[in-house]
Fold these 3 entries.
Entry 1:
Amino acid sequence: MSRWSFVGRTVELGRLRSAVADADRRGIFFNGSAGIGKSRLLREGLVTLPTDRYAIFTVAASATTAALPFGGLVQVLPAEQPQGLSPAGLLRWAVQALREQAAGRPVVLAIDDAHLLDPPSAALVHLLARTENTTVVGTLRDGEQLPLPIRALWTDDLVDLAELTPLGRPETGALLAAILDGPVDDGSTERLWRLSGGNPLLLRELVLAATGGGELHRRYGAWSWTGRLELAPNLTELIDTRVGQLSAGVRTVVELVAFGEPLGLQLLNEAVAPTDVETAEERGLITVVRHDRRVNVRLAHPLYGEVMRRRCPVSRTRRLHARLADLIEKAGKRRRDDLLRVAVWRLDSGTVQDPALLLDAAVQAFTRYDVPLATRLARAALDADGGYDAAELLATILMFADRPTEALRVLDAVADDLGCDRRRARWLTVRGMVNYWGLSQESTVEEIAARADELTDPGDLARVRAFEAIMRLHRMDTETALRLGRGVLDRPAASVAARELARCTIAHLQAAQGHFRRSAEAVARVAAEAPAWRNDMPYLQLAMELARGTRLALAGDLAGIDAIVADEFADLAGAGDFRLGTGYLAVLRAYAERLRGRSDDALRTSLGACAVLATSRVYAGLAQAERAQAAALRGDAGHAAEAMAEADRTHAPGMAVLYPWLEQARGATLAAAGDLAAATAQLTGLADRLRADGLAGHEVLVLHDLVRYDRSAAPVGPTCTDGGRRSVAQRLAELSERVDGPLAPLLARQARACVEDSPADLLAVAEDFAGLGLPVYAAEATAMALHRLRRSRSGAAGAAHQRLGALLAGCDRLDTPALRLVRPTLTGREREIAGLAAEGASSRVIAERLYLSSRTVENHLQRVYSKLGVSGRAELPAALRAIAGRTGAEPE
């Protein structure tokens, strides 16, 4: 584990530095709770101040020095204090002593925990803040009694007072990545952020506890937390210090809220004495929050609940759970989640009597994609004689918990209890899911098709055919899938869930074919019917997201991807450990980040997706393919090849519908290794296969990859009547009239501009790419234009350099074949001279620094200008940045 790093707080650091540098300001104090990072912020701000320019005096006040005169400043004042001086004389002596030590430099006095200063020290700080050429900065703990001279600092408008808030989720993720030397998956980051409340000290203790307990695991470079928490002594002591001693009544308040939050204030007041509730709120143990028309009570910090729940005796825990259930039932279970909460409390208290309650609660938990809770409730319902319905639900949930073998055992145990078509149909489809997606048995499709003929009820038959349709789509039997899906939609007896599953199958195929408008309309219809299918088939959401995600990715609609990864489903799936959902959405997010040129985030997110999906083969290959693409974008051929090998190993044959993504990533991997011939052969073969399968939406992107590799004239498709074959550019022109949206025509324009060798058209295409929010494509089109301008020694090369530099400045590390086109070979000496010249050094200065003659320097510069295609020094910075600065590689 690395040293605990400092991340974020850039605004606060800026305010601290401004307070020191601005002659009109006298300082700033940061106020915040214990462990929020005040002291670290102060240290990080001070370490950047040059000691030759400022006299920096740092003190840390403490309870042990609070009773001693000038005890708080004992670290910076002379050891010998003059005798016989009045209080005012002592203050003047202290100011003068610091002035003498400063030796004419401006004084910066930094006080950590200024609320613990003794009265003379506090008075001296106030006096110094009024003194010219002096800045006072410091920290205060929230809720502490402050010395009056310190409080007067901001009430008299001498210094600023800033509240230091908890770290946000992005800063918490960055801090975790820094301390663990690698990214942490999104779900783990979310849980650790919420549990720590954004408090760096508590986060540190949580990570140490999870590491010490072996609950942090690394897969594919990304860390994942199991969610289990060992309460290490340090962590417990921290919480105990905050909670303090509790009376019996207040402890009951905190315990009830710990087990029941969010708990209505009215219910809590019925269970305990209202005065105890008020005391708990005054002490900062609970908070009362208003949500719409409801007033709820929560714990002031999530870790309070962890400690209270762990320490509560079993018998008392059961009694508290029963009490909470009684309270909610007495009130009438009016809230949407009351059923679920009462079922859990009844189960935990051992007072459950009705298996139907557990079964209904399990369905509700599954509709929220809380897989662990749904599993627990469904198993309890089955154990309480819930019968076939409980077994079917449990097996379905186990399938999505990556436990297909256990799911089969549950189904086989009720195989003799299928007394009607409804049960047979549902048993058949659940077993089909488990065998096909859970165990990768492709023969399941034929088995389910044959068994469907045994059903006589048209509604039940429609359900089975809807599942058969999506299985056939996934194994690329697209014509049959489309026929079956349309047949389900044509059946009046089909349930809403069956119809919308069939609609998802058709929408996915339409997206792959490039019919984006029709696909979007179908997905919108599925989403509108969600209230009708959610309880019956919660996992249908996954089929809908796959269809929607395919369309958005192929259309280059990054804003649309942003919308679905920020939707409620993403939050629910992440919180409920619905790994197929979170994994797929992480792949989509990585795709969007890659196209935006955020290669760092793309690689981190794709690694997280690989880790989340490591135990499931449904989307594992897709995640590894996206990881390969992210690595290839950075020019990391070794990483891309490793990810591609994992994609081949983990890809399930039953998910053949994903082959375009995997094979496209294979081409990118070959290109990253510099083998453009092999990459071209791979992609032209893939384009031919996609054309044969009718997947024009995918074919467009594959052909565009060939354009990006400057292979627009490469032949693709079958031999024409004249004996020739279409070029990539010609085929893209054809597809641009068939594939919906603005992207395909733009890709066709780029291909045509490459074939016609038109830098002006390429630059125009680059502008349009930038307008669509696709900076990687814009940068590559600009690089292609620059390559042609340089080749013709055009005077417009300088402006193209500037444009390329500006585009790359907004991206992370990029290293693609198109960008390599404009990366000329500079000798080591030429690199040195060009770098110094770009920094503004004159030829004479360069000559003196490198021990060369001025004539030699000028000769080298002329060769550099020629190689870079620029006219002089003014264009050097952008040209050098374009070939090296943001591409992640120096010129050879």
Note: Residues 438-555 form one domain.
Entry 2:
Amino acid sequence: MRWSRYYIPTLKEDPADAEVISHKLLLRAGMIRKLTAGIYTYLPLALRCLQKISQIIREEMERFGAVEILMPGVQPAELWKQSGRWDAYGKELLRFKDRHDRDYCLGPTHEEVVTNLIKGEVKSYRQLPLNLYQIQTKFRDEIRPRFGLMRGREFIMKDGYSFDKDDKGAISSYENMYEAYKSIFTRLGLKFRAVEADTGQIGGTYSHEFMVLADTGEDTIVVCEECDYAANLEKAEVLYNEVEQRKIDCPPLEEVNTPNKHTVEEVAKFLNIFPHKIVKTLLYNIDGKVVAILIRGDRELNEVKLKNKLKATEVRLATKEEVEKYSGAPVGFAGPVGLNIEEIYADQELQFDTDYVIGANKKDTHFIHCDLKRDVNIKDYYDLRNITVDDNCPKCGGKISLTKGIEVGHIFKLGTKYSKAMGATFLDENGKEKPLVMGCYGIGVSRVLAACIEQNHDENGIIFPLPIAPFECLLIVLNPKDNKVLDAANKLYVELKKSRIDCLYDDRDERPGFKFKDADLIGVPIQIIIGAKGLAKGVAEIKIRRTGEKIEVPLSECIKSVIDLKSKNNF
């Protein structure tokens, strides 16, 4: 493909509204353009990348026994009401009515549709196991779409679904897809980690996320340095050995004045104590009911754990008005003693100490010498906080570290959640009707492109791994007005195509420096440069984009050199 006939509208400067590296570079490299918030047009270079990603996914899905289908993007509300998710899914589900006033939604995922498909077709255990997938555009009405393709409203996704006759078969299908995903992300040339994860709105009994490791990632990953344990921060358990409460006497509760001291840091400094001796009282609205959550002052509450422990559908921090209504005090002074709330839950860590400082439900006032078991009616203790590097690995007790990652894949063992709700059953070997046991497997295809760039870039632009790159090599002619140089470049371009090397030919009449900047910006792994000086010696210059290494090779050996470089795939 000749650059002069292609559409690559590169930009010199970073767009003002782009925040993360991938968003900036996708725009600057002429790969995407914004239509409206969270919705983008994929231009030719991006589309080629997405097609290559999709092809690798298709090859691995076929190798692991999955079959491709294509389901509608528009879904009737009746299916979502059958599964119970029409109201539970939230505002991310874009709902609308047709001309007959019937309710529909744009599909953010397809569990309901595929379950409805199978329940009318699969009737016997002899038709199982079955694994179906699609690559399709999805829509989730994010409240704050941001970061370009990282968190858009419209995106391309591979979603797959397995159906088995029993739990043993479902586990086998899950493990099969786990291996398939490892193979996919390895072939894509990405550094990744599979981690234990929360099942979220999809549901099911357990799941794994596939994370591309990148310093700019939104997700925090917990990794053990001594075993193979890895988990999303939302999922990582905090475990304690059997530790008895400290055998010390706690003085009686005492009220103290703390003028204008709202935060943990302010109170700790004012009272000359450590933050871990303060208990934060957080008021949350849980499915319409306000409850109190207690956590150590130097810890962070994990809302996913809270939601799961209380089996909640919706969890949100109480409003300022709710805090004042139930505590009788401004924000920053709520405490568990005398609080006008029936249900109080505490993080399990608070069981192992005493003599805490708490809010007194009065402006500018705290209590000191609080013993939670003596002074507070706590309904239950749960693991409710984020794990830290000072905690031990939940699996082996070893040292853990925290790193950043970008979620690009997620697999779920769904069990019978959807099949029971929607009546998807089969007859087993004994003629008994049973619900299908399901699994669900997703890859954010467009997100993979963004995550790849977050992991592979430098100050000059994108550095694509060879399998994902829009082109394998970029042929640059330095002076197309020089007939000898142009003839040599044209001849080499024909030979590259004959050799089935995926090549973009920069035949534009532009300055060499301009072409070199564009070449580095779009990130093609191999650059071949034809100029008058090299031609006089009978050589072409080959530059490796990732390392910046440059080598001169005879024109007659240029094709062989490119093929050798491709085979090494050290990009």
Note: DSSP finds 16 helices and 31 strands in the chain.
Entry 3:
Amino acid sequence: MTTNSPYLSISMVFLALLTSGSLIVVSHAFSIKEATIRDIHLAFKLNKLTSRQLVELYLGEIHKLNPKLRGVIEVNPDALKLAEKADQEREAGAARSKLGLHGIPILLKDNIATKDKMNTTAGSFALVGSVVPRDAFVVTKLIKAGAIILGKASMSEWAGIRAPTGWCARTGQGKNPYLLSAEPCGSSSGSAISVAANMAAVSLGTETDGSILCPSSYNSVVGIKPTVGLTSRDGVIPLSPRQDTVGPICRTVADAVYVLDAIAGFDQNDKATREASKYIPRGGYKQFLNPDGLKRKRLGIVRHRFSNTANSTQVTEAFEHHIQTLRQQGAVVVDNLKITNLDDIVERDAGGEELALEAEFKLALNTYLKGLITSRVRSLADVIAFNNKFSKLEKTKEYGQSFLESALTTNGIDHEVKSALLNMTKLSRDGFEKLMKEKKLDAVVTPAVYISTILAIGGFPGITVPAGYGSNGFPFGIYFGGLKGSEPKLIEIAYGFEQATKIRKPPSFKNDSV
């Protein structure tokens, strides 16, 4: 069992490249700080930048910042080789070089499988050395779109089940780049940390309940939680097939949309994509990057419970200002709305979400583990035994074993679980869906992440955009949520808000407490 430094593999790859002479670090005129996909492609076009140089720059930032932030678990040892291939394609004028993500480095959350030299572990030592049967479907889509897989982002271990937010055995505690003492939120913490700190151009995360929206908000980046099934979960270490979704975490709405365009689509290995693929608009999502996207949108403001957040005074003041911005940009704001059963929904035990997740996790994880070509664990029981045996050797913290052990006792989708699932369906229908339809809303707007559970149990989409910073510099976002398939409207709303406000700023790496 290894107890190596959490970022040793990154340093070793970087230093090996240096000593081999294959990596020549030079001063490039192009700066990756806050660079967008559009900026990068323009630099390519003007011959101001190559993909190899771009990857070198990101490797340099990872080498410099990751020992402090711990947002990256490992880098792809073939990243430079892939970058050189992209440069060759661009020089030859290959059709592939015209694709939307061509030559763009992307980090993947460590639960998204890659059939390469990297691990896919959900942040756990239990899966180090395991061999996946194939790339995750979304990875295949990214590669087809020309993206360079730069590495794996850290995550709250087992999607937050066995760890506090941002902590996993392989890296230790991830740090919020705006306020190092503050939590980065989870479980896609490393994806958000890394793009916020400019250690990658763009990233992918996953969400079961809040794991894209929360870290995006807390790290002042944009996160899109798609309608469940809009993006395939094949090859993604699961928590709940009913709620799991894969989505982009980026610094701008436009970049997130470019990534969403690349990964959305039908996959025969994920039956949920068959139904959800009907929502994908002809021509993709880029057409909805409309700076006037707020015009004539009906937006419902739900305030109940949503004031309970960090920096509540600053959040409240900023939110009131943002409501005026929404109106000024042409939106119809319907204020002081209430989701009647909100309290039941946001309490997992009351709504039945926790009970359902335990049963679904056991079934889905066992299926995933059995499908691996090589693995030291083949079931949830094996994972629990591994944790019990090696936790002291790994010097890991004892978190989340109770959830794992409780999940182990479940017996499939039994009567009790079915009742919980029916209750969540009823809560969605009589709460969020009813409000959206009765008030004819395009989206619900809130300043706090509690909305994630509402969206999670119904499989609904949501987007968060940077909305401000507290007096200590801690970021917060604004959330837009809609009904299934409403991504086009949500993108217009989010992009319109972003362009009207342009709030995001680079991180400060402060050490102050919250």
Note: Residues 1-8, 14-27, 393-397 have pLDDT under 50 and may be disordered.
